[in-house]
Amino acid sequence: MTKRDCWFWLCGTPDIYREDIKRIFKSYPDPESVFYADKTEMVQKKIISEKQKRNMENFAEDDLFRTVRDHQEKEGIRFIDIDDPEYPESLKMIQDPPYGIYVKGNLPDPELPSVGMVGARACSEYGRTMAFRFSKGLAAGGVQIISGMAAGIDSVSAEGALAAGGKTFAVLGSGVDVIYPAANINLYYNILMSGGGIISEYPPGTEAVAWQFPYRNRIISGLSERLLVMEAREKSGTLITVKYALEQGRDVYALPGRLTDKTSEGCNRMISDGAGILISPERLLSEILKKEIAEPEEKRAEPVLEAPLKAVYRLFGSDPLSVQTIIEKSHQRPELVAAILAELELSGLIREVSKNNYSKVG
Amino acid sequence: MFCRVFSAAVCGVDPQLVSVEVDVAGGLPAFHMVGLPSSEVREAKERVMRALENSGFEVPSRRITINLSPANIRKNGAGFDLPIAAALLGALGYIDPESVSETMFVGELSLDGSALPVNGILPIAVFARENKIKRLLIPEKNGFEGAYVSGLEIFTVSSLTGFVRDLKSRSLKRVEQADLERMLEENYRSNLLDFRDVRGQESAKRATMIAAAGFHNLLYVGPPGAGKSLMAARIPSIIRRLSPDECLEVSKIYSVAGLLKDETLVANRPFRAPHHSISSAALIGGSANPRPGEVTLAHKGVLFLDEAAEFKKDTIEVLRQPLEEKRIVINRANYRAVFPADFMLVMAANPCKCGYYPDRNLCHCTDLEVRKYFGKIKGPVLDRIDICVAVEKLNVEDFSDKVSEMDSEHMRKNVELAHRVQEERFRKETIHFNAQMNNQQIETYCFMQDSAKKILDQAYNKYNLSARGYYKIIKVARTIADLEESGEIRKEHILEAVGYRNHLMD
């Protein structure tokens, strides 16, 4: 039995969580001594429960854990324990690092800068657009984007990095082979194919359970040098990640928003409390790479459009507009507005976010 | 003595001829009723006997046999009281059997001998005419239903004593004929809601007009309180008036359901809005006795399903047959009924579970939850929606002095114009509206300009449309072009139709 085997056995035993291992290590110095320890005695000392004892014994019986590990390796999942030289240094530094992590694909390159991006699952169009712009801009500058692959900001951040041909990593609250939410199946494989990776401290096969999500956020900030909060409501789960990041001494940045938007309340408060303010991806990139990167002069050249289309296109700001609003603002007939909007959408200049509600692209 | 009169059993909205035969013979006193009577009909024995006695007609203790023929169809309802009583009076010699031989009777009797109204008189009257029945006798309170059926003599009966007296003195009370067209003229609009009351919402109103013009099924998407139901309830006001034939068709259904109100027929197109807790039996009809369901009550009108995503999945599923075949066939162990169900389907749904997406100050639903919300109505029924449009929450300004030019009158004129164009187009076909075109007919009747075709192909690629989605856009564009009397489908017609496409099916 190598130490590596013992780590795999200990971390992979069902119903043994990080807190349990922490408690066990108060009485036993290392995984080997746990492996060979008298489990009945452990139960008597109230270090583990009867059920955990049974699980530990079952998992060790006939080297079951080796079979499990072989199977995982065939699936391309590696287990990296905290003593492994490949274990990320930055993760070791956090307050309660996982004793082992499962990785499908790659781990972030410690030589390259990495930025964590988090935010509301129910994000606004503004948050979505900005998350995409920042992750794309940063990834194009060689920054690795780390997120949680949840709905909303997390997913968009990963997509932005992929759009720039960059690398992105997802830390899951479920096993690395459990795609949650299920609709992210394309994103999951795109991350893997682009050379990024899927990371989790939970053994493969672990289902997504609500309490695991805030806790995994410490790994997102642990793997990142900087944490960007793209959108957060006043009482948001995202703010848990911020708490971890601050404890871990990471720089935290927040995307400013309007005072009237609930989705920006958390971010605005963070800025007021001293978080960095996000102005442009280039500005942040200059800071990360410690060299001047110019912001593009003209943000975006206005597309060449015929007069009626242009008049409607110009009404769009960062908020989605409804057909009715456009009819009122443009003073055009409904049939004409409907046709113009369809044409603008077909040209890819606007996007229908909800029935007859459109938002400017980019 | 023997006496025979006619009556009718209504199954669905189609009556069937029943002859009621009574035989009074010597032997041990008995009372037999044969010929598959339901429990209500079996109870007729008690009512008829008491009513006769209380009206002063003595029923001797003899062997009385009543036969309802044909014996193989099930007879429901209390409408057989009157024919049984009449045939019994004939058999007992109180009246001349000859004088009621070619006569159909329908009606319930009270114990004091007065005639009570029953459901389904209108279809029975029409049926009697078609079957060359000379005379029809109905309860006085059902008289108005007979007023619009010509071609046979219809009399009303208020009580058994009155009936026997009048029959003998040849002074039965004849139902006065009424003019159906004039009734429609007079009663139309009296309680019709007008689109004038809907301020703002130009876009949704226009989509509604297009839907009505081409008989396209419609889905409103919008937050609570935006006015989705308000608009749906006004759709009957923009479709042309019921024709006399349609009026009779619809009124027959309401007569069977016992829903004719104020002693008049149905003058306006029906608008039915069942609550989402409705059972599938109540929606399509049926139960132990064949009763018209909401889809049938909405015949020639609008069936509105508010909160469409809240309907039980299997409830929504049953709409498939009526949407496809314009009728509903109900098969039960003891009957098979066919009900007409040619309606315009209008559904309304919130954009998400909380109803406020994309307003992020109110809505906390994730994109996935938003998409999932429509999962319940996704599928066969959502697939038959041609036009999908947002209804928006109004700003306060919209309530003020703004008067919309889109009132029902204006919209109906446009819709009627489009209907005339379609009538002309489909005069050699069995269909009437653009929404009913099959792919073959779309190829034949929808000429597109090149620029329009190009835009359509672009949309096809961009939205990854299904073949059905592709043809739907053409059908809607055809209707938009018809509203302008444009023979060809132009680019702007396709573009507008693309905007109304059902994004939930993409």
Quick structural summary:
By secondary structure, chain A is an alpha/beta fold.
Give descriptors for this structure.
A: alpha/beta, 12 strands, 44% helix, B: 506 residues, alpha/beta, Rossmann fold, Helicase, Ruva Protein, domain 3, 19 strands
Overview of the molecule:
The complex is a heterodimer of chains A (362) and B (506). Chain A is of the alpha/beta class and 362 residues long. Chain A folds into 3 domains: 1-74; 114-289, Rossmann fold (3-Layer(aba) Sandwich), CATH 3.40.50.450; 307-360, Orthogonal Bundle (Arc Repressor Mutant, subunit A). Chain A contains 17 helices and 12 strands. Chain A has helices spanning 3-12, 18-24, 31-36, 39-44, 50-60, 64-74, 89-92, 125-140, 153-163, 185-193, 212-223, 238-247, 265-272, 281-289, 307-313, 323-330, 334-346; strands at 77-81, 100-105, 114-118, 144-147, 168-171, 197-200, 226-229, 251-254, 276-277, 321-322, 350-354, 357-360. The mean pLDDT of chain B is 89. In chain B, α4 (143-146) links the parallel β8 (135-139) and β9. Chain B has helices spanning 39-54, 81-91, 121-130, 143-146, 160-168, 180-187, 202-214, 228-232, 244-257, 280-284, 294-297, 313-317, 320-325, 367-373, 396-399, 408-425, 439-445, 450-463, 467-483, 491-499; strands at residues 2-11, 14-25, 30-34, 63-69, 103-105, 108-109, 115-116, 135-139, 153-157, 173-174, 218-221, 271-272, 285-286, 291-292, 302-305, 327-332, 335-340, 344-349, 387-390. In chain B, α7 (202-214) packs parallel to α16 and α18 (450-463) runs parallel beside α20. With 506 residues, chain B is an alpha/beta fold. Chains A and B meet through α16, α17 and β11 of A and α7, α14, β19, α18 and α20 of B.
